[in-house]
Amino acid sequence: MTSRWGAVVLALLAFVLSIPALALSVYSIVKFRMPYNEEGRYFDGLVVHHAGSEYVLGFLALGLWALAALALAGAQRLHRRAPPK
User: Fold this and answer.
1) Do 61 and 68 meet the contact criterion of CB atoms below 8 Å apart?
2) Could you count the other beta carbons within 10 Å of the beta carbon of residue 33?
3) Per-residue CA distances from 37 to 43, 50, 54, 77 (Å)
4) Contact 48, 41 (CB under 8 A)
5) pLDDT of residue 82
6) Which sign, positive or negative, has the C-alpha torsion 11, 13, 15, 21?
7) CB under 8 Å to 63, separation ≥6 — which residues?
8) 72 vs 20, 21, 83, CA distance in Å?
9) d(CA 81, CA 84)
10) DSSP string of 13-80?
11) pLDDT tens across the length of the chain (85 residues)
């Protein structure tokens, strides 16, 4: 019974981690497509964005995707080990 609950918890953790990973991925792609000037800056009307921060956001998103994949793999492994009902 414990391995089933562990699988459910890990699957929920994978889902929760995938939400910020998706948000960071989309935001990183949006920032990557911004037109920067020669100084590496983009002003969108409210905020000055600096070139290069999209790489940091992309690496953070990649790390979150990796954690979500590990949690999902752990959930699948625990689910396979669970005794049938």
Assistant:
1) no
2) 8
3) 9, 10, 15, 49
4) yes
5) 67
6) negative
7) none
8) 16, 14, 19
9) 9
10) HHHHHHHHHHHHHHHHHHHHTS---TTSEEE-SS-EEETTHHHHHHHHHHHHHHHHHHHHHHHHHHHH
11) 467 888 899 999 999 999 999 999 999 999 888 888 888 788 777 778 888 888 999 999 999 999 999 999 999 998 887 676 6
Task: Report the greatest alpha carbon distance in the chain.
Answer: 64
In angstroms, how far is the first alpha carbon of the chain from the final one? 9
Q: Which pTM was predicted?
A: 0.81
Among 2, 24, 4, CA closest to 68: 24
Tokens of 36: 């920067």
The distance from CA 56 to its chain's CA centroid, rounded to whole angstroms, is 13
**What is the C-alpha separation between 49 and 36, in angstroms, rounded?**
9
